[in-house]
Design goal:
Pfam families: Transglut_C, Transglut_core, Transglut_N
InterPro entries: Ig-like_fold, Ig_E-set, Papain-like_cys_pep_sf, Transglutaminase, Transglutaminase-like, Transglutaminase-like_sf, Transglutaminase_C, Transglutaminase_C_sf
Radius of gyration: 39 Å
Largest sheet: 6 strands, mixed
Strand content: 25-35%
GO molecular function, one term: protein-glutamine gamma-glutamyltransferase activity
Family: Belongs to the transglutaminase superfamily. Transglutaminase family.
Number of strands: 43
Organism: Pieris brassicae (White butterfly)
Shape: elongated
Helix content: 10-25%
Distance between the termini: 75 Å
Number of helices: 17
């Protein structure tokens, strides 16, 4: 019997070996025959206690105990006979029948029977695996070399690449579960690929394909095909870790992936025969294993962007490797127009270690920014139809590079880059021009929700992926997508009337992260509500996340000229009451107390030399440009010089800074019913400020930096206003339709500035009158105090004084208006601003005068402290406190606060607050990083809001 068995086994081995060494179809047929000969037969299942007797967790459920008595190459044997005179042999009786009878007569669910069954299945399975291993060793390695390389794992070294790319602060890079590379264009990065075998430099063809957008195109620069060259010898590995393929998952017992276009098979290293030598690669804890799937079920086949759409043949690959960009027949590079070497993508082999190759890819400084995917395409020389496409799991974010001189975003000063690119907190300026109020804001551009939201907004903008390497187009798209004014495609809805019950009030936000996270979790639904300074903070966040240097700028007394006259016209009747929308109801001009926009830093190759640097973009919807609510980028230098003909929207920005404020009063003797009143011609654009990059002031406003001189020349070199208006309107001379009164002005008027007024305290409005003539003058005066929105619109009249009196020659008079807290307390709106308007008319000379001023009521600061020191990984307590300045109860109270590294944006309800009460609220936090952390918080209620504060909290490691 033994001789027969050995002869059968030898014959099978010889047949299998000869078939396999024949290669091609014969080899595949021989392999299949050998594996089938070694596999076990399946028979009807036998159950014990309702479970199959052949069931062993982790093993095949189709094994039959009787089949393990059969050796490969031999017919099924009968059961072994028992020794002794009673032993009998029964012809025609199935061994399974005897087994069933024995199991039937055995005790039900006997532990010995189950144990024996489990043991024999386990031992038989191990034996089968050893036999499979022996069979695989007989197969020549040259058989496998006929197949294209298959990618098993990829590693993009997200953390290590980020150090060179200045992106190490991004949460996406540092994610412990699924890190994604964030790379800056104009630099190189490393990534490693482990194949299923060692590559053949003469026969294996590898292409790395990078795709951006839903329809990547070679000619548009959104599909990059990089052929891997084998001409360069392996170089010394200069990676921070002297390990190649570290984290690729080479340790024993780690699941191993064999990827094909149609199936993905998972096996275990150490228990299944390997089809190629396994490189000696050390495992580390810094890189995680990345796969498409860890399950045994094949995932649905994903369409590959590497193949053309429709049922057509795949493109012919290069027959021989060629240098990137070199003209070769059949090369896709022929489709690309000639471009400078510095603007080309490039790939090289950084090092090869066994079946693991580390590539070095150079991103050109003109590459489109956004979300990219990487595909590894492998084939064999002369086998164009035999190809494997592997899509890497990682989403690759490519952003602008202010550190690269070749990038149009280059910013030379390192301190400026730290402030305008890397600083994740700052200030937005509100208040009035003589009482600016800085409000702390957490930009949070490195939060894991920000960069994905920015990419999604670009997708919603409709900007072509091929245009996303142009910062001008990118910034213009950002200015249109932050607001959701006329459609539902924007990020945030603007509202200015104080009605926020169906959303979140603008003053309740503490930073951009909460807004962007709500936007993503709500499926791209616009967030409610925001105002210009909130829009400005969001623009800073989006721009800095994309690598665009950006700052928030506030223009105090900002004009909104709706009819292109470069004037802000206001009309009053004889009693001094404002005539809404003018006498013809077609004038919607306004003058905002403050308006926040943004400056972005870039070169402007589309403009003449000297107009680069800071560019103005405005995300607050005011006027349509090209049928879209967008504004900019307008060159700051062009605005300063009055060169309003340059793109984009330079004339509109110029009017915001330089429009003339014109007041008209109803007059019977006027030809058109109104006369122009004297007013302050320097009112518009009184002060332009931003945060000082060199100062941090949590308590006060010493970190304010005035940049008015950058926008408006102060040395008398300002361009002639009428010439600028004429050039923007397309004719040489501007006709003045409204002439002012040509009388002698011998009486002077002055509206006194109001000093700081605490919230809840009374105040006085004063107007000085001085008669400089030698005759008495009869003067009609009107003094009005009203609550107003920061857009300049009147919300409610508080008090009004009117009178006619005589001012003696050479004498001075003072007109006062006293307003109590009871008169304004229930009439205030956002920012608690008061507008004072004064008018005067001299009867003898028909001199008319008008002026207005705005000031905010100051609210108490919100104090932020800690209860004891804070330590990373340990619970801590933040304490918020302020004193109620009102003599009434505060209802519907809540706190909003956040601090990157301590607490994500959070909103907490609070009880009613008593009149004059010292409010204290505590909340638990768990610090995640050490260092100085900025915490911002606000308190809101039905009776009072915009109580905010900030503090720097030190967290120990």
């Amino acid at each position: 019997m033994a001789a027969v068995e050995k002869s059968s086994v030898d014959k099978m081995s010889s047949s299998m070996t000869s078939s396999i060494t024949g290669m091609g179809l014969g080899g595949i047929t021989g392999l299949a025959t050998a594996l089938n000969a070694l596999s076990c037969h399946c028979e009807q299942q036998i159950t014990i206690g309702g479970m199959p007797t052949n069931y062993v967790p982790g093993l095949s459920a189709n094994y039959n105990i009787s089949s393990f008595c059969q050796r490969p190459g031999q017919t099924r044997r009968w059961p072994m006979q028992r020794a002794g005179p009673t032993a009998q042999f029964r012809v025609g009786r199935s061994p399974s029948t005897g087994l069933q009878r024995r199991l039937k007569n055995s005790p039900r669910n006997s532990p010995n029977t189950q144990y024996s069954h489990t043991l024999i299945c386990k031992l038989a399975d191990q034996n089968e695996r050893r036999r499979r291993q022996d069979a695989m060793e007989l197969i020549s390695q040259s058989f496998y070399s006929q197949l294209p390389l298959k990618v098993e794992l990829t590693e993009f070294y997200s953390r290590d690449n980020s150090k060179e790319h200045h992106t190490e602060l991004y949460d996406l890079v540092n994610d412990n579960v699924f890190p994604n590379p964030v790379l800056r264009r104009g630099q190189k990065f490393l990534f490693a690929v482990r194949f299923d075998r060692i590559s053949d430099k003469h026969l294996d063809i590898i292409h790395v394909v990078l795709c951006c957008g839903p329809k990547p195109s070679v000619t548009k620069g959104t599909r990059i095909v990089l052929p891997v060259q084998w001409v360069s010898p392996p170089t010394i590995f200069h990676h921070p870790r002297d390990v190649i393929g570290s984290g690729i998952g080479m340790s024993v017992g780690l699941p191993r992936m064999q990827c094909d276009v149609s199936t993905i098979t998972t096996t275990a290293v150490g228990t299944t025969a390997s089809m190629s030598p396994v490189s000696s690669i050390r495992e580390t804890n810094n890189y995680n294993v990345r796969r498409s799937s860890f399950g045994n079920d094949p995932p649905p086949v994903q369409p590959s962007p590497l193949s053309p759409h429709g049922a057509v043949d795949r493109p012919i690959l290069n027959a021989t490797p060629s240098a990137y960009g070199r003209s070769q027949q059949g090369s896709v590079q022929n489709l690309i127009p000639s471009i400078p070497e510095s603007e080309k993508w490039d790939i090289s082999i950084h090092r090869q270690d066994g079946n693991t190759i580390t590539f070095q890819v150079t991103i050109p400084p003109t590459a489109p920014v956004g979300l990219w995917n990487c595909w590894i395409q492998t084939s064999r020389l002369g086998q164009r139809d035999n190809r494997h496409d592997y899509k890497c799991d990682e989403d690759i974010y490519i952003i602008f590079n202010p550190w690269s001189r070749e990038d149009t975003m280059y910013m030379e000063n390192e301190e400026s880059r730290k402030e305008y690119v890397l600083n994740d907190q700052g200030k937005l300026w509100c208040g009035t021009w003589h009482q600016p109020i800085g409000r702390k804001w957490i930009f949070g551009q490195f939060d894991d929700v920000v960069l994905p939201a920015a990419i999604y907004l670009l997708e919603r903008s409709g900007l072509e992926h091929s245009d996303r390497g142009n910062p001008v187009r990118i910034c213009r798209a950002i200015s249109s997508m932050i607001n959701a004014n006329s459609d539902d495609d924007g990020l945030m809805v603007g509202r200015y009337d104080g009605e926020y019950k169906d959303g979140v009030a603008p003053h309740a936000w503490t930073g951009s992260v909460a807004i962007l996270e709500r936007f993503l979790t709500d499926g791209g639904r616009p967030v409610e509500y925001g105002q210009c300074w909130v829009f400005s903070g969001l623009v800073v966040t989006i721009c800095r996340a994309l690598g665009i240097p950006c700052r928030s700028v506030t223009n105090y007394v900002s004009a909104q000229d709706t009819n292109g006259t470069f004037t802000v016209d206001k009309f009053f009747d004889r009693e001094g009451n404002l005539v809404p929308n003018g006498p013809d109801e077609d004038c919607y001009d306004s003058c905002w107390n403050f308006h926040a926009w943004n400056d972005v830093w870039m070169q402007r190759p589309d403009l003449p030399q000297g107009y680069g640097g800071w560019q103005i973009i405005d995300a607050t919807p005011q006027e349509e440009a090209d049928a879209v609510f967008q504004c900019g980028p307008a060159s700051l230098e062009a605005v300063r010089r009055g060169e309003v003909g340059f793109n984009y929207d330079t004339a509109f920005v110029y009017s915001e800074l330089n429009s003339q404020l014109c007041h008209f009063q109803e007059e019977d003797d006027s030809d058109w019913g109104f006369i122009k009143m004297a007013s302050n011609q320097q009112q518009v654009g009184r002060k332009i400020v931003t945060k000082n990059p060199n100062i941090e002031d949590e308590e006060g406003d010493s970190d304010l930096l005035e940049i008015t001189q950058e926008y408006k020349p102060t040395n008398g070199s300002a361009p002639d206003r009428l010439s600028v208006i004429a050039s923007s309107r397309g004719f040489q001379r501007l006709q003045q339709s409204h002439e002012s009164n040509q009388s002698d002005d011998d009486v002077t008027f002055d509206l006194m500035d109001i000093e700081t007024v605490p919230y809840g305290q009374p105040f006085d409005c004063s107007m000085n009158i001085q008669n400089k003539s030698t005759e008495d003058r009869t003067i009609l005066c009107i003094l009005t105090a009203s609550s107003c929105y920061y857009t300049g619109a009147i919300a409610s009249r508080l008090r009004r004084a009117q009178g006619e009196f005589i001012v003696r020659a050479g004498q001075r008079e003072i007109l006062k208006l006293h307003v109590t807290s009871q008169e304004y307390m229930d009439k205030l709106v956002d920012h608690s601003m008061i507008k004072v308007h004064a008018m005067a008319y001299v009867k003898q000379t028909r001199q008319a005068w008008s002026e207005e001023d705005d000031f905010p009521l100051h609210k108490p600061k919100l104090q932020i402290q800690t209860r004891g020191p804070l330590t990373v990984g340990q619970d801590g307590t933040l304490v918020f406190s302020f004193q109620n300045p009102l003599t009434v109860h505060l209802t519907d109270c809540y706190f909003s606060f956040e601090g990157p590294g301590i607490q994500r944006p959070r909103q907490a309800r609070f009880r009613d607050v008593k009149p004059g009460e010292l409010v204290t609220y505590q909340d638990k936090v768990l610090p995640r990083r050490e260092g100085d952390i900025h915490v911002v918080a606000t308190f809101s209620s039905r009776q009072i809001d915009e109580i905010f504060g900030s503090a720097v909290i030190n967290v120990k490691g």
